[in-house]
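Fig. S4 source data, part A: sequence.
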Amino acid sequence: MIHLTRDLVRRWLDALLHIDDSPERTAAAFALGVFFGFSPLLGFHTLLGLLFAFLLNFNRVAVLLGVYTNLPWFLAPYYAVATMLGSELIGIRVPPDFRGRLGALFELSLFHAEFWQRLVVLVRPLLWPYVVGSTVGALLLATTAYHVALAFVNSRRRIRHLIHHRKP
């Protein structure tokens, strides 16, 4: 009975995780996760990654690994650079004295409506640069992630093949 249950669980996990996917599909799953991890849809990346993994029948673990390559200490620098890239691409300049106004904003309490009202007024001109820049960045990173993941999966499979087919 336990053996039957273990086999059933193993088959279910293999189907869910797509262990036997081609290297290209596994790399594509990882790249999809990287795209959502660095997209402008910050906060929805896990949900979107899993939704698309199920819709495209991709390896869910590979997608989640890609989604979580955007670690917390990458967030601020990545989105700041991406927003600046977006502003260059679409020709929108950062508001004058942005840094000073942002610093002055944090002299207010986060718990007062005035802080949030001023924050919206300050960052509103940067919405489209943020969307464009982080989308372009996410596409570039996903393309790179696909090629790196494909090389990694292929090398791991070659090593596994050599180990299992080595003559004693």
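Fig. S4 source data, part B ends here. Residues 23-164 form one domain.
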